[in-house]
Automatic annotation (TrEMBL):
<dbReference type="InterPro" id="IPR048254">
    <property type="entry name" value="CDP_ALCOHOL_P_TRANSF_CS"/>
</dbReference>
<dbReference type="Pfam" id="PF01066">
    <property type="entry name" value="CDP-OH_P_transf"/>
</dbReference>
<comment type="similarity">
    <text>Belongs to the CDP-alcohol phosphatidyltransferase class-I family.</text>
</comment>
<keyword id="KW-0472">Membrane</keyword>
<protein>
    <submittedName>
        <fullName>CDP-alcohol phosphatidyltransferase family protein</fullName>
        <ecNumber>2.7.8.-</ecNumber>
    </submittedName>
</protein>
<feature type="transmembrane region" description="Helical">
    <location>
        <begin position="98"/>
        <end position="118"/>
    </location>
</feature>
<keyword id="KW-0808">Transferase</keyword>
<dbReference type="InterPro" id="IPR043130">
    <property type="entry name" value="CDP-OH_PTrfase_TM_dom"/>
</dbReference>
<dbReference type="GO" id="GO:0016740">
    <property type="term" value="F:transferase activity"/>
</dbReference>
<dbReference type="InterPro" id="IPR000462">
    <property type="entry name" value="CDP-OH_P_trans"/>
</dbReference>
<keyword id="KW-1133">Transmembrane helix</keyword>
<feature type="transmembrane region" description="Helical">
    <location>
        <begin position="139"/>
        <end position="166"/>
    </location>
</feature>
<feature type="transmembrane region" description="Helical">
    <location>
        <begin position="207"/>
        <end position="226"/>
    </location>
</feature>
<keyword id="KW-0812">Transmembrane</keyword>
<feature type="transmembrane region" description="Helical">
    <location>
        <begin position="20"/>
        <end position="53"/>
    </location>
</feature>
Amino acid sequence: MALNNTYDARLVQQETAVGAGVQILVLALLGTAIGMGPAGWVTGLVFAVATWAVLSRALHRSGLRTFGPANRVTLGRATLVGGVTALVADSFVSAPPVSLLVGLTAVALLLDGVDGKVARRTGTSTALGARFDMEVDAFLILVLSVYVSMALGPWVLLIGAMRYAFVAAARVAPWLNAPLPPSTARKTVAAMQGICLLVAGADLLPYAGNFAVALLALALLLWSFGRDVIWLWRESRTTGGTEGTGADTAPAGKRSALELELELELAGR
């Protein structure tokens, strides 16, 4: 049995290595197609290595014996996000083909709901898979906000940075570690961020239109986060600020509110 477990673990780790290899292949294709410069290459390679390292560590800690079809879809999306990241980094030196960047982003966004459906149909929903899915989404939004900010201004970076700021704040304010109730509005707002940034980045609208679309995305995100923070604060007043820190919730107390929310998100993954 121990030998089988070791063999399964090696197979799972091999899949992450294959993912890194595919990422490098995508970079090679992009580099050949557009003559990508050093900035794009370095950023893309760093993304590939970081994704492989973080995912391998998470798989080792989770003890999963199979990578699963849903995680393969998410890994494919991560590969596309890596390509987008390389193109955005390269855009600081030379303007990338907008159609290529938009195409990769659009496919990544369209596949966002596929991994969840695959997980439910195959009965392979896991906390790791949901977290992987969430991190890929969050990083894509961050990269897109960087790209759009070059045309509309640094304020757009608030869209991509807000989720990470919330996680950082949860380390300082323990009451933010409480789990949030399910919310269709929250999911809708989150999905709209990628769409709005894609529209603004595609530059199909005049400057005022792109500005309005990005501003709408930020306004909705501020409303969604603000509503959740207020709810969490009220809950902390009710529970005396002990939510997520008691012995009955450990190790939940060591996780962020977004990680705790995964338990609720799994129902929709």
